[in-house]
Structures are given as structure tokens and as C-alpha cells.
Design a protein that fits this description.
This protein is α/β, with parallel strands linked by helices and 197 residues long. It is built from eight helices and nine strands. The chain has helices at 2-6, 23-32, 50-58, 71-85, 90-96, 125-136, 144-151, 161-174, and strands spanning 12-15, 41-45, 63-66, 99-102, 105-108, 113-116, 119-121, 184-187, 191-194. It has a four-stranded antiparallel β-sheet with strand order 4-5-6-7, with helices on one face. Strands 1-2-3 form a three-stranded parallel β-sheet, with helices on both faces.
């Protein structure tokens, strides 16, 4: 962890089977530290069970790659995660306005930061993009497939459950009561929307 804090990284690849510390725990620590929370993480592992994948994403990973994998697939996934973590183009920021405010929730498109009632909220790059996408289209309902196309459009290996995991992580960060959300609503059998209220 000392290396991660002392240097600057564009992306981290973590194996779950590390000596001295479990990869999931390291992922949780990285996401919990303000200095490293923004760094994209890809988990590499031989654990291919659905529960392991969901746990990895819930711990803060941006992608989960199981062994064996081809070098081409890994390079494609790294490129996709890096694309998602890059800030939007300057022209898009100015056209849309730098700060988006909705009922005490503030999103800074330029700095990729979120605050709720003046307090900073730590989100991964993917979580930020998902929240911003919903916020810019508040009141509109999106299916899992539509959100996959919008946020993970360049990736061919993302499962629909990935959307549910990221929505759950977002709610844990911005909702006072995740079981009765104020911002991100679920329309059963249809999808998700950011409330216009």
C-alpha cells in the first residue's frame, strides 16, 4: 500500500492471491483512501465464480478478469477501463456546464468529484460516469442494457449484473437509506433512473 500512496498510477492490476494481504482487502483499502480512491483497478484471478466477481466489483474493482486470459483480451480491458477513467473532453464540459446540482448532490464534470450536502463522496471513475449519465438525464428510465451500452460500450465482456453492482455501490455512497433511495430509483422489471423530484 505504501507504494500505491507514494507513486502515481493510471491503473492498478491486483491478483487476489497476494502474499501478506488478500487482493480484495487491498482493493478495499485503495478505495477507502482519498489519495488513491480514483485509481482504476482491474482484478486478475483464477476465481471465476459469480460470487467472487460480484464481491470484487463491490470492493471497488472497475473490472474482473479470470485466468486463463489472452494477452489481447487483457490489453482490450485495460484500454476500456482507462477510457472510462479519463475525464470528458473540455468542449463537452463547457457545453454542459462544469457543475451539475440536483437536490444537494453536486457533480463536478471537470474534476470528477461528487459532494452530497457539501461533504465529498468517494466514487470510482465508473461510478462517477454512471451517476453523471443518470443525472444528466434525470427522470428518464434506463434498462440495464441501455446503461451497459452507455457506460461500458467499448467492452464486450461485461455482464448485465455489473450495472446492479455499481448501482448498489452508488446508493451506499449517496443515499441515507439504500432501501428507500432518494436519488437512484428502481423501476422493477424496467430499470433505473435518477429521480427528478
Amino acid at each position: 500500500m505504501r507504494c500505491v500512496k507514494n507513486d502515481t498510477y493510471d491503473l492498478l492490476m491486483i491478483d487476489l492471491m497476494l502474499p501478506g494481504i488478500q487482493g480484495m482487502e487491498l482493493c478495499r483499502i485503495i478505495r477507502g483512501d482519498a489519495d488513491t480512491a480514483h485509481v482504476p483497478i482491474i482484478i486478475l484471478t483464477a476465481k471465476e465464480g459469480e460470487v467472487d466477481k460480484i464481491l470484487g466489483l463491490e470492493m471497488g474493482a472497475d473490472d474482473y478478469v479470470t485466468k486463463p486470459f489472452s494477452p489481447r483480451e487483457l490489453v482490450a480491458r485495460v484500454k476500456a477501463v482507462l477510457r472510462r477513467s479519463l475525464p470528458v473532453k473540455k468542449e463537452e464540459q463547457h457545453a454542459a456546464g462544469k457543475i451539475l446540482r440536483i437536490n444537494g448532490l453536486e457533480m463536478d464534470r471537470e474534476r470528477y468529484t461528487v459532494s452530497l450536502e457539501g461533504k465529498p463522496v468517494k466514487l470510482s471513475a465508473t461510478e462517477f460516469k454512471l451517476l453523471l449519465y443518470l443525472a444528466e438525464r434525470k427522470g428518464k428510465v434506463f434498462s440495464r442494457e441501455q446503461l451497459l451500452d452507455a457506460i461500458w460500450r467499448e467492452e464486450s465482456f461485461v455482464e448485465p449484473r455489473t450495472v446492479d453492482v455499481h448501482i448498489r455501490r452508488l446508493r451506499a455512497q449517496i443515499e441515507k437509506d439504500s432501501s428507500n433511495p432518494r436519488y437512484i430509483k428502481t423501476l422493477r422489471g424496467i430499470g433505473y433512473c435518477l429521480s427528478a423530484e
